[in-house]
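The data layer described in this paper is built around a simple, fixed record for each protein. We quote a single record here, exactly as it is kept in our systems:
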Amino acid sequence: MASICGRMALRAAARQNVTYNSVRTCKMMNDPLEHATGIEKRELLLKAAGNDNPFDMKVFKRGAGTKENPNLIPSAFDARIVGCICEEDQTYVQWMWLQKGNQKRCECGHWFKLVEKAAV
């Protein structure tokens, strides 16, 4: 049915010397920032400002982790859950809670300490 209608329109256009354009106009979507709300908008604004890790979810490489020089974990809260992969070929994560003001030792012997980070 659509092909018949198309052929009829082409014949009518040919008889009346009407030109037509078969290219559709492409309407682009607006900027996602205009549609975002809530936490998604906050994330997009922080990424636009240059913060590629707005929720502090990136993996930290573990340092020496001694009692005198512990691995520093930033947090805007009084406590944070931290996962330690004790050995390179380990297939699970050793999870532990860190409390502000206290150092914590993982089962593998590495020390961790929570440090204050300003909330965004």
Notes: The chain is about 25% helix and 20% strand.
